[in-house]
Amino acid sequence: MRNFYLIFKKELKSYFASPIAYVVITMFLILTGYFFYNSFALFSTISFQATVNPMLAKQVGLLNITESVVRPLFGNISVILLLMVPLLTMRLFSEEKKSGTIELLLTYPVTDMQVLLGKFLSCMAVFAIMIALTALYPVLLIVFGQPETGPILTGYIGLFFVGASFVSLGIFASSLTENQIIAATVAFGLLLLFWMISFSASLAGQTFGDILSYISITTHFEGFAKGVVDTEDIVYYLLFITLFLFLTLRILESKKWRG
Amino acid sequence: MIEVENLTKYYGNYYALKGVTFSVAKGEILGFLGPNGAGKTTTMRILTCFFPATGGKARVAGFDVFEEPLEVRKRIGYLPENVPLYKDITVEDYLEFAAGIKGVARRDVKNAVTKVMDECVLTDVAYKFIGELSKGYRQRVGLAQALVNDPEVLILDEPTIGLDPRQIIEIRKLIKNLAGRRTIILSTHILPEVSMTCQRVVIINEGKVIAVDTPQNLTAKVQGASRFLVKIDGPSQDVMKELRAINGVERVTRRDEYGNNGVGEYVVEAIKDRDIKRNIAPVIVNKGWALLELRPQEMSLEDIFVKLVTKE
């Protein structure tokens, strides 16, 4: 427990000792803020127009702040996370491999599991800070409108699971290589694939199509953004996270039998 | 303290170690000597449980490196070659991290770090980032992290590489001071280092141990005949003639740049197993020449090393 905490603390410190965390968080907030501004501004424009145009007002959904601002907001945040999380995870093992510090780390009396969880949770902590800062957007919505709070809460729960999945896959990619660019590229590529894989569901046969859309990260996030917490979705994310953390552990262990 | 038995390691088809066997007693400093690529680092990585061997057994402080790696790791301090350290963390933070992770009790961490920074002369740079430090300081941070939990066994992979001469002397002194309570394995390809710091030497080449002995014994074993260096002020021709005439002398050669007037250096080689120590000085003194210097010319570890390695 103590080893895990020490690694966690050290990793968190180095996130903030280098500019990485600051740059990633700043860019993330600029992008999400931009998308939020656009959908909020569009919503208020439409609202004004609706006061003079009754036809517009009848269109279902347009004048629902949850439907037209909150849901797109979570959708956008999750896409931007897809771009940003690989940049947070890429250094976790790659840098240690490249600089050789992994040799010292793994000859300290720590288990691979403690190392992995320390790194995973330190990255999750940065992720949590990043997400917590976006809370400003819903707060603005609550101040100037009347959104439902339910979907906002479930949206954040969903983001948390999505983020943890991204981080676990990112760490896995980082454990594969000593090159940070390759780690980021692999993580980004795989995440995008998991994101888009449901696109081909309609082309595949019935069973295979179902499987493809079940695998996709997007399918499982939609519910959360709508305000629905489905255990099936939670199980999916937990499986996803466990799978990639498990694979990373195997990669770390593989140095024992690889020639 | 350390027992290594018939250790082998393959990297794919490449044999890095082909059956290495040696042992180190408690409190001993063992020099691990060999050319680059001989298998020194591989052996050390196995001993520190970084990766396991393909075959053979290794025990450190009574624990098998494969069966109980965590117990072994608790008892060793390891300084890898090239001293890999985190750059984006201060010296003090890093040493506290190392102390904690190596199991120093929470309330003792501060003390242990202060003590080790004192020992390794790091107090001045305690709040600097490791990335900003010079090579000499980084080496000392590396040593400090190895020492911070007061381990029974120290494994140092080329601890003086890349340092300037003054730093090398400092590090050697530090290592010598550490001996006694601790068992130390020290790898190097710099030979004088071994004769200066180690009590026993393991010479390894191409994954095999080719000699284990004290530096003195090794010298004696490999050296054939005894040789002396004599510095004499006298006419060169006559001096050579007289020296050659001494009973038991095999060969005399002149090796200096003084010219012919007066002072000259000569190497006198004895016939194998003949003792000529006592015979040289009287001859010269009797002739009335000045004897400026007379000393045995020992074979250096360099010579031994080359001899052993090329014998293979």
Describe the protein.
Chain A is mainly alpha-helical. Chain A has one domain (2-256). Chain A contains 13 helices and no strands. Chain A has helices spanning 2-17, 20-52, 54-58, 65-89, 91-99, 101-105, 112-133, 136-144, 149-176, 180-196, 206-215, 217-226, 231-253. In chain A, helix 2 (20-52) runs antiparallel to helix 4 (65-89), helix 4 (65-89) runs antiparallel to helix 10 (180-196) and helix 4 crosses helix 12. The longest helix of chain A has 33 residues, at 20-52. The radius of gyration of chain A is 21 Å and the shape is globular. Chain B has two domains: 2-213, 3-Layer(aba) Sandwich (Rossmann fold), CATH 3.40.50; 224-298, Alpha-Beta Plaits, CATH 3.30.70. Chain B has eleven helices and 14 strands. In chain B, strands 6-7-8-3-9-10 form a six-stranded mixed β-sheet, with helices on both faces. In chain B, strands 2-1-4-5 form a four-stranded antiparallel β-sheet, with helices on one face. In chain B, helix 3 (91-101) crosses helix 4 (109-119). The longest helix of chain B has 14 residues, at 165-178. Classes of the chains: A mainly alpha (259), B alpha/beta (312). The A-B interface holds A 2-3, 6-7, 9-10, 13-14, 17-18, 99-104, 106-111, 255-256, 259 and B 10-12, 45, 48-52, 70, 73-74, 76, 78, 80, 82, 84-89, 93, 97-98, 100-103, 106, 129, 145.
